[in-house]
User: Fold this.
Amino acid sequence: MKKYISRSLNLLCLFSVAMLFASCTIGRFVYYNFANITDHKIFPSRTAKSDSIKFHYAVSKKPKAPKTLTVGNKETTFDDYLKNSNTVAFIIIKNDSIQYEKYFSGYNEESVVASFSMAKSVTSILIGCALDDGLIKSIEEPMVNYIPELNHDGLEKVTIKDLLDMKSGIRFNESYVNPFGDAATYYYGRNLRSAIKRRKLAHAPGGEFEYSSGDTQLLGLVLERALKGKTITNYLEEKLWKPLGMEYDATWSLDKKKDGLEKTFCCINARARDFAKLGRLYLNKGNWNGKQIVSSQWVKESTTPTPGNQEYTNQWWLNGDGSYSAKGILGQYIYVNPAKNLIIVRLGKNHGNTDWDGLFASLAAKY
Assistant:
C-alpha cells in the first residue's frame, strides 16, 4: 500500500511538473520568479545602434546637488539614501549640465538597465514620429485600420487615442504576481501576436483611465503594421537613437527570436545617460540641437493635462505642476521639469520604499 501511494505521488509530481513546463509562459514565470533589471539577458532582442557622433552632457563646474536628506528625524547623506533605497543610477541635469551622477551596487555609466514601463513613453514618441512621417494618418483612427483581425465585437470602436490614454476598455489583467494573468503572458510569453488576438472589450472605449500594458502592446502592433516591413527597433534607431547622439547601443526585447515583436509595453534596455537624452528631447519640445525630431505639438499634447486626462496622456505621467515622467515598475524614472530646465533619471532594483515623485518635486524646488 505504501509503495502504491509513493508511486502515485511520484506520478502526480511528474504530471504536475510536465503540465507546468508545457506552458513556457508559466514555466518562465516560476523559474525567473519576478521581473528584474537584468531581464535583458533572458529575452531575445534587436539592437538599435548609436551613431558615431555622440552627445555628451557637460559636467557642472559648480554642481548644485543635495549633500544630505532628512528622513523622519534622521539626517543622512544623499549618497547613502540612494544606496539604501536600492538605486543603481541617479542623475540630475540642470541647464544641460550634470549636477549629480552616481552609481551604486556595482553599476556604472556603462551598465545596461531594463526600462520596464518607461518604454511606454518611448513607444509614444515613435507614434508621434510615425504621425509626422505620414505612416499613421491620425490618432483618431480606429486601431483596426492597422489590426484588422480585431475588427469584431466592439473592438472596431477603439481608437489609437484610446490606446494612448489607456481608455480602450479592453480587458487586461495587469497583475504581476499571477502566472495566469495577461501581464505574465505578455512579459514571458513567446507569441504576442497570438495573445493580442484574444483581447476582448470589458466596456465601451473612451471612459475612465485604466492602466493597461495591453494597450501599449496594441500600440506596438499598430506601429509595426504602419512601418510596413521595418522593425520597431529599426525605427527607434532611425528616429531617436542615432539623431540624439546616444552614447551606447540599446536593445529592445522581443517575444521570440524569429520574427519577434518588440515588447513595447516594457522592454528597452539602455544606460542612464541615454535615458536622460529622451527627457532632454521633450524638455526642448521635440527639438534636438536645431533639428525637429518629433513635432512640438505632439510633445505638448503628451505632457499637458486636459479635463479628461489630468494624470496620464499619450503614455506619459503628468505630475500636476507642469512636470511629467516616464515610469517603470521597479522605480525607473525619467523626470522632466520644464520650469526648472531640469531632468532627473533614477534607475533601481526596486522602489526602495521611497516616494520618488515627492523626492523629485522636493529636489526641483531647490533648483
Residues 65 and 168 are 42 Å apart (CA to CA). The longest helix spans residues 2-22.
